[in-house]
Amino acid sequence: MSSNSSPEKVQKTTGLHVGTIEPGVKKVDAIISMDHVHRQFGGLTAVDVEHLEIPRGAITALIGPNGAGKTTLFNLLTGFDKPDTGEWTFDGRNIAGVPAFKLAQMGQVRTFQLTKALGLLTVLENMKLGAKNQKGESFLRSLFPFLWKKQDDEIAEKAMRLLTKFKLDAKKDDFAASLSGGQRKLLEMARALMSDPELVMLDEPMAGVNPALTQSLLDHILDLKKEGMTVLFVEHDMHMVSHIADWVVVLAEGRVVAEGPPTEVMKNPAVIDAYLGSHQDVDLGTVTGRIPKISE
Amino acid sequence: MDWGSILSNTAQSLLSPATMAFALAALGLAVHFGFAGLLNFGIAGFMAVGAYGYAISILTFGLPWWGAALVGLGASVVFAIIMGVPTLRLRGDYLAIVTIAAAEILRLLFLTTAFEEVTGSADGLFGYHASFRASNPFPEGTYGFGPWTYNEVEFWVLVIGLVLVALAALFVWRLMHSPWGRVIKGIREDEDAVRALGKNVFAYKMQALIIGGVIAAVGGIVYALPSAVNPNVYVTSLTFFVWTALLLGGAATVFGPLLGAVLFWVLQSFLSNLLPALVSSGLLPMVSSQQAATLRFVLVGLGLVLLVIFRPQGILGDKRELTFVK
Amino acid sequence: MESVSARGISSPKRVVVAVCVFLLSFLGLMVASPALADTVGEEYDYRISGNVKNEGEALASVRIVVSGDGYSAEVVTDADGKWAIGVPERAIYEVTLDESTLPEGIAVLEGGATQSVEIGPSGSVVQNFFIGEGERVVITLFDQLVQRLIYGVNFGLMLGLAAIGLSLVYGTTGLSNFSHAELVTFGALMAYAFGVVLALPLWLAFPLAVAASAGLGWVQDAGLWKPLRVRGLGLVQLMIVSIGLSLAVRYVFQFFVGGGTMQLPGSGATKIPLFGAVALSTVDLASMAISLVVIILLALWLLHSKTGKATRAISDNAALAAASGIDVDRVVRIVWILASMLAGLSGILWAYFRPGIKWDMGEKILLLMFAAVVLGGLGTAFGALIGALIVGILVETSALVIPSDLKYVGALVLLIAILLVRPQGLLCRIESIG
């Protein structure tokens, strides 16, 4: 896993938006579009998004301080949580309330912040699980191997191709629990690709990964874009974000405070406030609009 | 002390209908807990549904024995669905409590005098063997050797029981080595991961519940075949004994439950023959023969405790594969 | 006049009842004609039988209900007015004559339509009612409801003592303790050991029994649960350990006391009619009072004492509590001792309520305890109490509409329903995910 000492210039996609850049701006080609999404836990508003569109074929980063609602928004989008109100579409289809497993079948896969590589299965079994439309997974058909053996072998071949790409092929028969943390992240990503998804959603892919592996992971994510997939990821690492993201959405206190290409977003004073708290005596709510600014 | 009869009785229990019924129940529980990770503490309820479904179909509805067996199995599918719909979305320990409650509700319904006409209430059901005995292909005579000597009826039961155990084991083995089994094993470890991979986790858990339940119901029917159906048999303690047998053999394997059931039953039989003999020959002072019987169950309880602490994977299991062990 | 105890009923009354029962059973043995009466429960070894007559004329199709010790059955008199019900235990039962099945204008004149009867050494007993022309005491549905409500509260308070302990243990350690029922039985057995076997006065025997329960709780945590926690056993494993423990302990109990039912002194005390259809014995009243006092003391302790507050903190968030300097192990030890004490006390009260002590008496209400705890919210003490009251009232009042041997079914169905609709229970707030 050699990495260049200075990463090569990444080709960024531009021209994703229509009109002035501001929170909720329309996109030329949106793969996901959400409206009035609201999620509250007891008295705490976790997510309160008026309108947000995710551009197709690009890498979008979702950033924000801790507790901003990024993972909650992720859970809502992927069907792991139900909103109080809200609608959103995936590829034009209304998917609010659709259960998580159906969304995955529709071409939307996700990884988790705490890696969910199934430790008690082997690496190859993990990969095979990721494939779609497996005949052998139906109860009745599973009893007759001749009905699914051929497809299973094809799936194994595809799995090996992906494992080789992710440099995990030597470990195919090891229990996933015996892999290192970084290797498990790679496995989770490789497994997600088994179903040829349209949209790959990564929840903090760099969390807990040692720096030597970071470049390799970044390259894999860029590869996804090259192969025509859309990527949405949550991240804290600003270098990573500015390095590979085509579009950045900034969340704070559950609301979108800014979005745009990384360079513009980084210069946005509202974003700087949200992260660095330069106006430390000022409640973050004034930035997010929770507390109306009292004009002089 | 008559070692001869102690050993001979113990040997006989190796192939008794009770042992085979237990093996089937343990296999069903292996599908539920060992493979799918479902904490089902109501397995006695499934056995009861099978046994009562069988007996009631013959006595109240006059079906032939194989038709009655199908009804018993069908009833267990319905019971699994009724149990599964509200509970499969629940967390582990909640599921355990609910399954015990469901089995207990069932037992109380079988026990109540309100349905006495059909269920026999506390007396239970008996005298339904005519059709089964009529279909016996073995002519009158004695079969077997040594302690395993049977008349033609007992032999018929034995053959049926063994065939069913073998079929069930093959069935489960096939299932667990297929892609379906792969999904189930994934669910056992982490439902959300499997859900994120596009699998309908609820449907898989329900299927596992039904399959395991049907196998356990077959066990109930095998138990009832040669004897009677009594509500006092299908108590929570029976569930706990099946769990002990399962953990003893190896929860996440196909042969583990079979081995565990046989070992458990043989041990029980050995102790139930040995202990009273020890008492009557004066080797166990201060203990009466009734007390000797309860000692057996004390040992079962202790055995379960030690097993789950020191060797939770049982005899045949692989500790690396277990999800409930930290 | 010797009195049995400060809490028991006066003994001469018991002697009178005993003599009457003996005479009647002697008479009954001579008079009863075998196998002609309408019988139920013939497989049981013990019998209660009788002959319903109005001034010498046999009354047929009169309904008699026998209940007690977790068993209940009913029968109608045959053409000769005879009836017999088999019962499983040599214990105390209540025999009720359903006056609504008597002919118009005929009622039970003396003694009331419900009588307590104890199976003596002969194994069978006769219970007859004094019947004649008269106004029957009409028990309205409302009266019956109130009666059931009060019994339900009594049962619920007693159940609550046990359930609170179960909930506290769950809250602080995460363990669903299936052997909690055996702590209840233990309390009753200790009361019997001290109060009957050693014949100590009850005011001494009961506290000793509760102290013994506390000791058992200490032993359990020190000898088993703490070492297992240190060893790092998973919660499912711990739960299975508690199941194995419950099996072993239950059969140890059976080893020592056999399969029969024993009574504490003062059981089966006559019920004093209070108002409406409600009749409570002094034992019932004392039981409710004790439960209330203990619960109030417990509430004060949980709310105001340092350890009590620490208990609630640990239930809420164990890691945070430990990080704030709370000695979690010490608090858990105290919780185990407390839970065992409450369970032991509950066992003594349960022994008077059933009435009777049996080796598996705790097991019979284990599921009800879980129902109470789940209903109120796993981990909260007050929730367990409210859940127990609801369960107790439900169990007793449901007997009005469903056959009495199914009365536990209502509570069990409620348990499942609650987990469907509101699994966090009535009192817990819903927690955010992740």
Helices and strands, with pairings:
The complex is a heterotrimer of chains A (296), B (326) and C (434).
Chain A: E1 17-18, E2 26-27, E3 30-41, E4 44-55, E5 59-63, H1 70-77, E6 85-90, E7 93-94, H2 100-105, E8 108-110, H3 123-130, H4 139-142, H5 149-165, H6 181-193, E9 199-203, H7 211-226, E10 230-234, H8 238-244, E11 247-252, E12 255-260, H9 262-267, H10 269-276, H11 284-288
Parallel strand pairs in A: 5-10, 5-11, 8-9, 9-10
Antiparallel strand pairs in A: 1-2, 3-4, 3-6, 6-7, 11-12
Helix pairs in contact in A: 3-6
Chain B: H1 3-13, H2 17-35, H3 43-59, H4 65-87, H5 92-111, H6 116-119, H7 130-134, E1 142-145, E2 148-151, H8 152-176, H9 179-189, H10 191-196, H11 201-224, H12 236-249, H13 255-280, H14 289-310
Antiparallel strand pairs in B: 1-2
Helix pairs in contact in B: 1-13, 2-8, 2-11, 2-12, 2-13, 3-4, 3-5, 3-11, 4-11, 9-11, 12-13, 12-14, 13-14
Chain C: H1 11-31, E1 38-40, E2 46-51, E3 53-54, E4 57-58, E5 63-68, E6 71-76, E7 82-87, E8 92-97, E9 106-110, E10 114-118, E11 124-126, E12 130-133, H2 141-173, H3 180-197, H4 202-231, H5 235-257, E13 272-275, E14 278-280, H6 282-304, H7 306-316, H8 318-323, H9 328-353, H10 361-376, H11 381-398, H12 407-421
Parallel strand pairs in C: 1-7, 2-11
Antiparallel strand pairs in C: 2-7, 3-4, 5-6, 5-8, 8-10, 9-12, 13-14
Helix pairs in contact in C: 2-6, 2-7, 2-9, 2-10, 2-11, 3-4, 3-5, 3-9, 3-10, 4-9, 6-7, 6-9, 7-9, 10-11, 10-12, 11-12
Summarize this, please?
Chain A has 296 residues and is of the alpha/beta class.
List keywords for this structure.
heterotrimer, A: 296 residues, alpha/beta, Rossmann fold, 2 domains, four-stranded antiparallel β-sheet, 12 strands, globular, C: 434 residues, alpha+beta, Immunoglobulin-like, ABC transporter involved in vitamin B12 uptake, BtuC, four-stranded mixed β-sheet
